[in-house]
Specification:
By secondary structure, the chain is mainly beta. It is built from three helices and 13 strands. Strand 4 and strand 5 form a beta hairpin.
């Protein structure tokens, strides 16, 4: 693609008389005649605004031969005796007449750009941190991780404390159930005629299956079956070439002039399109089966009797068991320990009456506690 080059002339401000927007071709201030120097920001040039999309200067390029010759003279140098600026190819200071020597300072110029390199393809320079900053960041990260590990280990560490039984509660329930004839419904394939066996002392029963009747066809479930194909489309986007656009790069020549190189590069746009494909279409159809009614037996609750307490010993309620009945027992127990000089409590739930009584009769307990004050376990003394 064709390359287009322009030379842009910058402007500088005189710090001696405060004159503004002096063209870079002037090595001396037109107002006070003082030479431009390296210090005092006189060598900071303003090239105007830049178009952010293309990177192109909005200022017009220079075309007169004198300015172009000055731009091509190389980076300015500054006299080691009077500090005045001189064109890059000069051998003698135009202000004081001194020869250019090794002590003369040279203005900074950007390196030449590769002839085939396109500005739009330049990767942004990675951000670099100073060595001191890197050491500080690594040190801070290490300190944070090390401190977190130490705190975590300290918080998980445990110790034992004395505790006392502050409260105790219990609830004991007797549930009386009777083996009762009922009518049920099930799928025919699950049913087999079986004689019922009545329980003896609440055990040994068989529910049985009898008098299978009233069998009818019903929907048991559903299933998905293939039903041809259907066209399914989804909207997507893609990048496509849509012409060209101008992209420019800029290079300071170190003498108040900047070289601008522009190329026409491929422009890409987002295009919406429909991504279509054939997919299997499914329909839902019922799955039928035969349902039947039958006679059987099951345990049904007849009565629930409970007793509760805290200071007295647990006792089961007195319930009489009749024919074809059974009694089920359910017990729940709670012990509350107080530790940390009575400021914190720990709840226990003994699983059996024996364990509950062991805790109730104990003179105290030892509680395992983390350094954060959380109780993990306890044993009676």
């Amino acid at each position: 693609m064709a390359k287009r080059t322009r030379i842009i002339e910058g402007t500088w401000n005189c710090t001696s008389c405060d004159a503004k927007k002096i063209l870079a071709r002037h090595k001396r201030c037109p107002s006070c005649k003082n030479p431009r120097e390296l210090t005092g920001k006189e060598s900071e040039f303003d090239f105007g605004e830049v178009d952010h999309a293309s990177g192109k200067f909005l200022r017009e390029g220079v075309t007169d031969e004198k300015a172009l010759d000055l731009a091509g003279a190389g980076a300015d140098w500054f006299c080691s005796f009077c500090e005045a600026s001189n064109r890059g190819d000069g051998k003698q200071c135009t202000h004081c007449g001194a020869e250019r020597d090794s002590d003369a300072k040279e203005a900074h110029a950007d390196p030449d750009e590769d002839e085939d390199e396109k500005p739009s393809e330049k990767a942004p320079a990675p951000r670099r941190f100073s060595r001191k900053t890197m050491f500080l960041l690594v040190g801070a990260l290490f300190s944070c991780c090390f401190g977190s590990c130490l705190f975590s280990q300290w918080a998980r560490a445990t110790h034992e404390e004395d505790a006392e039984v502050a409260r105790s509660t219990w609830r004991q329930v007797i549930i009386r159930e009777r083996f009762t004839p009922i009518t049920q419904e099930d799928w025919q394939g699950n049913l087999r005629l079986t004689a019922a066996v009545m329980p003896v002392n609440g055990a040994g029963e068989v529910p049985g299956v009898a008098d299978i009747r009233a069998c009818t066809r019903k929907q048991r479930s559903t299933r998905r079956v293939a039903d041809g194909t259907e066209r399914v489309c989804s909207s997507r986007t893609r990048r496509v070439a849509c012409g060209t656009e101008e992209k420019c790069s800029r290079r300071s020549k170190g003498n108040g002039f900047s070289e601008e190189v522009c190329h026409d590069v491929t422009k890409y746009c987002s295009e919406s399109y429909q991504d279509c494909r054939d997919e299997t279409r499914y329909r839902t159809e019922p799955v039928m089966d035969i349902s039947c009614t039958y006679d059987t037996h099951e345990w049904q609750q007849v009565e629930r009797t409970e007793a509760t307490g805290s200071t007295e010993e647990p006792r089961w309620p007195a319930v009489a068991q009749g024919p074809l009945e059974r009694l089920r027992r359910e017990g729940t127990y709670g012990i509350t320990l107080r530790y940390a000089q009575g400021k914190k409590e720990y709840e226990l739930t003994p699983k059996t009456e024996t364990e509950y009584l062991q805790w109730r009769k104990a003179p105290g307990a030892r509680v395992t506690v983390t350094n954060m004050g959380k109780a993990l376990s306890a044993v009676p003394r």
